[in-house]
Amino acid sequence: MLSAPCRQAHGLRRHHRLWRNVTSLDSRAALLRLYAELDGPNWYDNSGWNQPDSDPCCYLIADGSCVSWFGVQCYNITILAPNLKYDPPFVVDGIFINANGLKGELTSTICEISWFLNELALVDMPITGSLPSCIAHLPNLHFLYVSSLHFDPAPLPPWIGSMHLIGLSLASNSFYGPIPHEYEALAQTALNVFDLSGNNINGTLPAWIDDLRCVSLISLRSNDLTGGIRGGIFRAPFIALVDFSQNMLTGTVPDTFSATSFLGTLDLSFNSLNGSIPPSLGVALQATAMNVTLTENNLVSGLDVLFLPGSRAVTIDVSANDLRGSLPHHMDNAVNLTSLILRANALNGTIPSCLGKLHKLRVLDLSDNVFSAIDPNWRIYDMNSLDFLSLRHNMLSTAPPLFFLNAGRDANGNLFCSWVSPLTFVDLSSNPFSTFGAPSPVSTRGGEWQAVWDDAVAVRGVGALPHVMGAAEPFITASRHNGMYTISELFQSLVVSSLPNSQTLVSCILTAGAVNNRLQTLVLSDLGIEGELPSLLFSAFPSLSHLDLSHNRISSKLPSSSVVYPFYLPYPLEYLNLANNSLTGDIPLIFGLALESNLRYFSLVNNNMTAESGQLPSFLVPTYDSQLDFTDQHYYCPSIQDQNLRSTVLVDPTYYRRSLCRCAQGYFGRVLEDGSGCKPTYSYCQNSRECVLRSNAAFSNVVAPLRGYWPAPALDNATLFIRCSDVPQLDDTIACNPLGPNDQRSALDEFAKGVQCKPRPDGPGLSCSPPTSVCRPGSEGRLCSVCSDDYYMSPQGCIPCPLSHQSLGWTVISILATLIVVVVALQLRSQETSGHRLKLRRQFHEARSIRGFFSTFWPEMTQVFLLWVLIPVALTPYDLDGNASAFIYSSVFFYMIYSLLRKSIPLDRAARHAAERETRTRSSDMRAPLLGSLNAPRAGGSARSSAADPNKSMGGFLGDTPVRDVQQVLAVSQGLFKSFLVFFQTLAVITGTVLPPTETLSYLVEFNNLVITSLRNKCRFPSFHYQSGFAVIMWVPVVVAILLLIARCVSSLWFAVGKLREAWSARGSTDASTRRNVASARQAMRASAMGQTLFSTGVLTLYILYFPLLVSYFSLFSCSSDPLTGVSYLRAAPYIRCWGGDVWLSMIIVGSTLMGVYTLALFAIFGRFQRHKRLGRLNHIDVRTKYSILYDSYRPGAAGFELILTARRIAIAAVVGVAPVTSAFTAVNVVFILAGALGIQGWLAPFNTSLGNLMETISLVALLCIYILSRSILRLFSSNDTAAVDLDGNVEVNTLVSLVQSLSFFTILLYWFFGTLPFLRLIPFIRKRNLRIMRRLGLGVHYDSNAASPALRSGATVVGAGIRNSYHAATDEAASSELGDVNGMPVVVAKSAVDTEPQGCL
């Protein structure tokens, strides 16, 4: 109760100058200015303030009620002046805003709010500046609470001493210096609250503090005050709280406490007070309920005075002093005590049982003393309120009984079990438990406990005792070892029971534990426990949230769950410390599930655990934001967290074999399993293989990676330099670190503009600069293997896109031109089926003229013109160089010559009459001879039996050149085409990944590596990368098949329409039936011929594309491991992760599916071919039309050689695609395959001409030589100091590259020469000379009409095909002349369409 003067002072509020007629509306302007100055719109709650037209004391809210603005306190002034008129009747008399986000500088606006302002409270906000001095002039301000703001450091404002304050708080505002002497005037006021805590106030306690007559709360906590405590403040009549903690006060605790005071909280902790606890404090405790905190001082005695009879102490904390002696035995006098903390003293002796009578006690901390025993009569489990118990770090030899297991049977004989203990926190760690005292009267006998566990083992049938307790870790043993003890013995001391039957103890514990036990924290560290980690420990305490078993001898593995022995961690478990034990094995999944739920700290450090895989489990991830430093071995390791980055998991780096560790600052290398591998910078770069070190002392440890070396897995955290490519790179195509040191072979202290790396000043790793020099312009990503926008990948790296690529119009035009070229090319190679055009051609051969040539061959001339015009348009977006263009145009030229010669073979009347005789004998009516003549060529062997005269002259421009010679040229050209195709594809595969990508060889790789070719699409589609190109080329055969199917459907529809048209035109004629039959037969044969042509086109497409597709597919299995992280990446695209990455998985699924389909299709074709071979139908016109690519190039008896050739191509694709290019396995197998192919070629000589066998032999020899030379280049490159190849500066490499280029082009020129030679032979004046080289190659002239050239004698199938084609055309002509014309249209012309597909592969 306050005295009269204090009550009078409290009544001073609002009684001054009431004659001033002011209201709340007069405060609105100042409040709005304050709102603007302190960032009002961003306050957490600005209700009312954001309505500037409202009354600060009354604004309407949603429910219609009237409230004041947030933080504004108002007073009804009419209470004090009932006779005066006020409108509105409110004034603003207080501002109280706490933690509302006010930000800015506090100005004098705060003083303009209201003359009636009685209270100003601004707490916990980022307000800056200083406290305005105008506050001293607010006459009615009695409460000033300005705390936890961001004021600038300054002394305490002295003008506060002139104010008539009741409450003052300036806590936590960065004030410094002594307490101003002006504050002495406050002692004469009604000051009730005085709080200066949390500043930097120094000096001594001022004497006037003892004279504060009305104070009830004084707090000077957390300052820098020195000197002693006078003690008069403890006699203040209304004092309720004194807090002088966390200063530097010295001396003794004053013995001035009063038995009549109201002191409820005394906190003198964290000072340097000495002496004894004063007796008057005990007397004061008898008078009032008090919380006493004297922790962290130097007190030595006086503990007994706190427990005088009638003590009303509520909490006592005298921890961390130097109290000695034993605990008093009258501690039960403090019956109201709820917390007793005697931690960290020197108390000894026996812990008395009188503590058990403190039934309100909730917290008991006796840790860090030297207690040696516990009174056996102290029944902790009977203390119903005890929640926290710590006996850590004493000298106790016997564990106290903490739990009482009440068990028995009810009237029905059912077992009931319940725990009797309210404890939620138990810490028994660091005690030398070794013996066990006499059990309490209700406990089982000591010897019975081991029998209890043995009975439980027998009942559950699980073998050894540790398995009864749980899973598999080092916490329990079944017997003592070297003075240690088991879990069963420890549990014996912790649990007493009334259980009459020991066999049911375990099930009783499990049943009771799952229902009633409240224990949340259990600390059993440093107790010397050994054995396995018991599951019973977790089952008995299902509410456990913190478990500490560290610093013991727990061994074996962590427990895991199984169907037979399920194991579960308590769901509330948040903290589990198993550090400093002897655990082994891996971390089971059950702990990962706990991390997913509530477990937030899991420590396994200083154990013997090692993951079998050497990697973290899937539920753990490393993070380098925080790390473990091993400075003695110069490396650091990441912190480990769960996948959600919410939990901390501490494991030894040996658990994951240090695979995630990295070298520390100034060191390079890869951390090995034993912790070695990190070498200093100077030793790592001294051989100048990957980097060079600046030798100037002023720039020590500055490292420059050589050109072609990746400077860092992450640019600013390099620990290892990686060579970007295993194959040679030209100087001007280096993508990784393209600048490098200025001169790699001279002074090491001279640097250019390349990447330079220095040890990071703020941590381990490197800081590399400049970032723009890491990759060549146009390249980015890992190993600079990704092309930037407006660049596309080529064999020479990323090059700028041509302007034509940027236009969608050019892309569309190119696609249309390509489609037209394909259609025209197919039309050019098809046989003529029109009877009228066959007649014109025969007339031209008999009497040639310029006019006859144009009138006869204008369709062919038009087709040739379209090809030469449209091919450049189709190739415009590809920006081809001269070599590629020359290759394409020369191929087109040979194709045109071949096709025109194919069409130029004249028809033979002898074949016509033979066909007529054959067909007339098969039927006597008109339709039968007609259909018989049409179907005659389908009979096996009929084509050869009716062959045209091979000695007949061609006529026309070829003069008297026999038909045989033209047929022979076609046969030789077909064989050379197949040989060149195989050579060209194999050459690119075996050299494209070894040789430097020079311009003269790049087109070889680009034409054969379809993925690189398709990557040009990135110019049009920036997101088009390697995986996109791979998908596109893998679908090419499917797209071709779809287009062929569409063409088949369209042609069938066209022929059906033609049939209806002819039938309609025959209406009403006398021979209408005959004409309908003829039309039906003609259109059916045309449809059949078109189907065979499209099928053969599909077979040819698959034959050409299968090999490059197979190489691209096998490249998916060619991966290289990053030397730092161990992650595998695709060699063809080093930014794509192998074996599990999403991109790689999608590529492997698509590639495997499509490649399987293509392989099945190819071998199905081979199967059909072999079936026809067994049936002797290889000369059948249908078989030849569909499958000519597979056997027309070979002599009779060697038609199955294509299987050997295909096996060779598949083997090379597998070896080169999968194995590393630098491995000896690749080299040995490629040489073996090529050498074996050369031996088979020499033995079989499978081709149908001497020229074909000769060129195949030359190509194999060339491939062997080229590959051996390429491997030599690779060997020189691997042993070189740099990743670049300087063809001008390196004589050896330059010589070898020149040899490879020369040999490659010489072989290609031989193919060109020998491919031209047969066509030159057709020129009349060359043919007449009958050159020796022609005769040697089987191309000589044979004047004997009965003699055949070597090509024909060896079974040149094109010759036979040409004779048959002449026969079919003659048959058509004979039928037409026999039947005549019907309404001006030839009756029979369709059968020759069966042979529209050329018999070669061109």
UniProtKB/TrEMBL annotation:
Domain Leucine-rich repeat-containing N-terminal plant-type: 27-74
Record flagged with keyword Nucleotide-binding: no
Biased composition (Basic and acidic residues): 916-925
Residues of the signal peptide: none
Disordered: annotated segments: 916-950
Segments passing through the bilayer: 808-828, 849-871, 883-901, 976-995, 1032-1057, 1094-1116, 1143-1167, 1225-1245, 1257-1277, 1303-1326
Skewed-composition ranges (Low complexity): 938-948
Keywords: Leucine-rich repeat, Membrane, Repeat, Transmembrane, Transmembrane helix
Protein name per UniProt: Leucine-rich repeat-containing N-terminal plant-type domain-containing protein
Top-level taxonomy: Eukaryota, Apusozoa, Apusomonadida, Apusomonadidae, Thecamonas
